[in-house]
Design a protein that fits this description.
The chain is mainly β. Helix content is 2%, strand content 50%. A hairpin with a 5-residue loop joins strand 58 and strand 59. The longest helix is centred in the first third of the chain and has 10 residues. The termini are far apart.
Length: 617
C-alpha cells in the first residue's frame, strides 16, 4: 500500500490556492464574529482574528450529503464526487461527504479545484492508516472537518512511513495543504504515531469540538495561523503542543485562543507562534519540557510555556504553566491585561526582549530565576506575587537567547539599558537577588510595591544604575544593606532609606504624628535596610518607625494603610528635613543599644541615593 499511495500522491496535479481568511465566498461564509478590541492594544498588522458563521456553526445539510461507509479495508459511497480505490478514497469536487464506520488503510484524499469548499463529516468514523496519513487534503479552497454533536471519531496513522508530494513531506495523521477548519460539537481523537498529529500548511481553525491529540512530534501545526474558539483540546506532544511557524510573511504565523480550554503536555514549547500569540478568556494548562523541576544545565532546546516571535497578549481566563524554560516569553513585547496566572519556571516567569506591560489580572509566580524581565517593564495594574531565586523585577537591555548553561540568557544583557515604571497594581516580591532591579532607571508614580529582598550584601531590595524618580505610590523594600539605595529624586511625597547595624525580622510600621500606621509590612526575609515611600510622607513632618505591632486590618502580607496599631517597639523617630531621607550621603544605623542615629553613607555612598558604585552586572 505504501508504494501505491506514494505513487498516487506523486502523480497528482499540483493545484494549491492559499486563500487568506476571511476571503471566503458563499452566503454562509459572509457573516463573521468579530474578536474583541485587543488589537487596539497590540500591533497585529493585517492579521485576522475573526471567525465566520460557518466555522462556528459546525452543521451540515444532510439531504445534500454523500454517504461514505467504511467496513475495514473496503468502503461504499452513495453519490457522485467520490472515487473508491484499492488503497484510498478520492474526493474530487465541492460537496458534503459523511464518513461512518471503519476505514483501515484507506486514506481519504481531497483533491478538488482551488475554488471548491469541501465538507468532511466524521459521523462516528474510525480511520487507521498504517502506511501514511489518514486524511490528506491536497487541494481545495477550504475544507471543513465537521464532528456532529454526540459522535466520537478517531484517526491513527502508522508508526513509520515516508510519503511525499513533490517537496512536501506528508507527515501527519491529518495533513492539509489548504485552509482547514475542524468544527462541530463532537469528539475527535488523533494519534500521530509517526510524527505530527494535525498539520495545515495554510490556516488551521478549530471551533466547538472536543479534540484529543497525541503526537510523536508537534500536536497541532498551522503554518499561517492556528485559531481556536469555544473548543476543548487535550494535547500530548513529543515536540511542540501548538505551533504556527510562517516566517516568510509578517502577517502570518500567529496563534489566537478564545473562550477555549487547552491542556498541553509538550516536551518542547507548549505554544509557539512565529509572530503574535493572543489569548482571551481561555483556560490553559501547560507542562513544557517536563516542567519547572527539570534541569536547565548543559541543555540545548526551547521549553517555554507560551512563546511569541513578536507580540504576546493575555486578556482574561486562567493559566497554569510549569515550564523548564520561561513560562511566558516574547522576542518582542508582552501585554497582560487580565486573567489568573499561576506560573512555575525553571528560568523567567515572564520575559519580553522589549516591553512587558502588566495592566491587570492576578499573576502568581511561585518559582522563577527572575520573575518579570524585560528591557522596559511597566506595572500599571493587577495583583502580582513573585518568588525569584535572583531578581524579582529586572529591566535590562539585550535579548534572552535561551543559551545553554546554568540558566538561559545569563549574562547576555547590556548595561545602561533598562526601564521600570510602576504606576499601579499591587506587587509583592520575595527575591534572593535584587528585588527591583534596573540597569538604567526606575520611575514610581503609583501602585503598591512590597519587597522582601536579599539577605546577601551583594544584592539589594531596590537597585538601579541610572536614576530612580518618585512622584506617587507606596513602595516598601526591605533587604540587605551592602548595596542599599534610596530614590535619587522625589516630588509630591518623601522617601526614606533606613539602615541597621544588624539584621531584623518581623513586621514594621511607619506612624504619623497622631500614631496611625501610614503603612505597614511584614517582610518574609530578615533585613538590614529598608526603603519606604508613601503619599503621607512629607517634608517637615516627623514619623515613628515601629516593629512588632499589631495592625488593624492588615492583609496576609502585613500590609495596611492609615490603620490603627497596638503594641510594638519604637525603633526610631525620623524628621523629614527634605523629601529624601538617607539620600545623598545620610542614612540611619542602629547603635548597639538598639537606638538609631544618622551616619554618613546611608549604607554606602558613591552613587545617587546612597548605594555603592559597582561595575556592570
Amino acid at each position: 500500500m505504501k508504494k501505491r499511495l506514494a505513487l498516487l500522491l506523486s502523480l497528482m496535479l499540483l493545484s494549491i490556492c492559499a486563500v487568506r481568511r476571511p476571503e471566503d465566498t458563499g452566503i454562509a461564509e459572509q457573516a463573521a464574529e468579530t474578536a474583541s478590541d485587543f488589537t487596539a492594544v497590540i500591533d497585529t498588522k493585517e492579521m485576522v482574528f475573526t471567525f465566520t458563521s460557518r466555522e462556528l456553526e459546525g452543521t451540515y445539510e444532510a439531504m445534500k450529503a454523500v454517504e461514505i461507509t467504511g467496513s475495514g479495508a473496503t468502503a461504499i459511497a452513495s453519490g457522485s464526487g467520490v472515487s473508491i480505490q484499492e488503497d484510498h478514497i478520492l474526493i474530487a469536487k465541492e460537496g458534503v461527504y459523511v464518513l461512518s464506520g471503519e476505514f483501515n488503510d484507506l486514506c481519504i484524499v481531497v483533491d478538488a479545484p482551488d475554488t471548491d469548499k469541501v465538507q468532511l463529516v466524521l459521523n462516528g468514523a474510525s480511520l487507521l492508516s498504517a502506511s501514511g496519513p489518514c486524511i490528506y487534503i491536497r487541494s481545495a479552497d477550504k475544507v471543513f472537518l465537521t464532528l456532529p454533536e454526540g459522535t466520537e471519531s478517531s484517526l491513527c496513522d502508522g508508526e513509520s512511513y515516508a510519503v511525499s508530494d513533490g517537496d512536501t513531506a506528508i507527515d501527519a495523521a491529518l495533513f492539509s495543504r489548504s485552509d482547514l477548519c475542524i468544527n462541530g460539537r463532537g469528539t475527535l481523537s488523533v494519534t500521530g504515531r509517526s510524527k505530527h498529529g494535525i498539520v495545515s500548511k495554510d490556516d488551521l481553525i478549530i471551533t466547538g469540538v472536543s479534540l484529543q491529540v497525541m503526537a510523536a512530534s508537534t500536536a497541532l501545526d498551522g503554518k499561517d495561523c492556528v485559531m481556536v474558539n469555544g473548543a476543548a483540546l487535550t494535547l500530548t506532544a513529543g515536540s511542540n503542543g501548538v505551533r504556527s511557524d510562517n516566517a516568510e510573511d509578517e502577517n502570518r504565523g500567529y496563534v489566537y485562543l478564545l473562550d477555549s480550554t487547552l491542556t498541553i503536555d509538550a516536551q518542547s514549547d507548549g505554544i509557539q507562534a512565529e509572530t503574535v500569540l493572543a489569548c482571551e478568556n481561555t483556560t490553559l494548562t501547560i507542562t513544557a519540557g517536563g516542567g519547572s523541576g527539570s534541569s536547565l544545565r548543559n541543555a540545548d532546546g526551547s521549553w517555554k510555556g507560551m512563546k511569541a516571535g513578536s507580540v504576546l497578549y493575555i486578556g482574561g481566563g486562567s493559566y497554569a504553566i510549569s515550564s523548564r524554560d520561561d513560562c511566558i516569553h516574547a522576542n518582542g513585547s508582552i501585554h497582560i491585561a487580565g486573567g489568573d496566572l499561576t506560573l512555575s519556571s525553571g528560568d523567567d516567569g515572564v520575559h519580553a526582549d522589549d516591553t512587558l506591560t502588566v495592566a491587570g489580572g492576578n499573576l502568581n509566580i511561585g518559582k522563577s530565576y527572575e520573575g518579570l524581565e524585560a528591557s522596559k517593564l511597566l506595572i500599571r495594574g493587577g495583583s502580582i506575587r513573585i518568588v525569584a531565586s535572583d531578581d524579582g523585577l529586572n529591566a535590562a537591555g539585550g535579548a534572552d537567547g535561551s543559551a545553554a548553561g546554568n540558566r538561559f540568557g545569563r549574562g547576555m544583557f547590556s548595561n545602561g539599558v533598562g526601564e521600570i515604571e510602576i504606576s499601579g497594581g499591587y506587587t509583592v516580591i520575595n527575591a534572593s537577588g535584587d528585588g527591583v532591579d534596573s540597569n538604567s532607571s526606575i520611575r514610581v508614580t503609583g501602585g503598591v510595591t512590597l519587597v522582601s529582598g536579599p539577605v546577601s550584601n551583594g544584592n539589594a531590595a531596590f537597585d538601579y544604575d541610572g536614576e530612580a524618580t518618585l512622584t506617587g505610590g507606596v513602595l516598601i523594600a526591605a533587604g540587605a544593606s551592602g548595596m542599599a539605595q534610596n530614590f535619587s529624586s522625589a516630588e509630591n511625597q518623601g522617601a526614606m532609606l533606613l539602615t541597621l547595624n544588624r539584621s531584623q525580622s518581623g513586621s514594621i510600621a511607619l506612624l504619623d504624628a497622631e500614631g496611625h500606621a501610614i503603612v505597614s509590612f511584614t517582610p518574609e526575609n530578615a533585613f538590614q535596610s529598608i526603603v519606604i515611600t508613601a503619599p503621607e510622607i512629607q517634608q517637615g513632618q516627623t514619623y515613628t518607625l515601629v516593629s512588632g505591632g499589631s495592625i488593624d486590618g492588615a492583609d496576609e502580607n502585613g500590609f495596611a494603610r492609615n490603620a490603627a496599631i497596638s503594641g510594638g517597639t519604637v525603633v526610631s523617630t525620623i524628621t523629614m528635613d527634605s523629601l529624601l531621607y538617607g539620600s545623598g550621603g545620610f542614612g540611619m544605623r542602629q547603635q548597639p543599644g538598639g537606638m538609631w542615629d544618622r551616619q554618613p553613607g546611608g549604607g554606602g555612598g558613591g552613587r545617587p541615593g546612597g548605594g555603592w558604585g559597582r561595575p556592570g552586572r
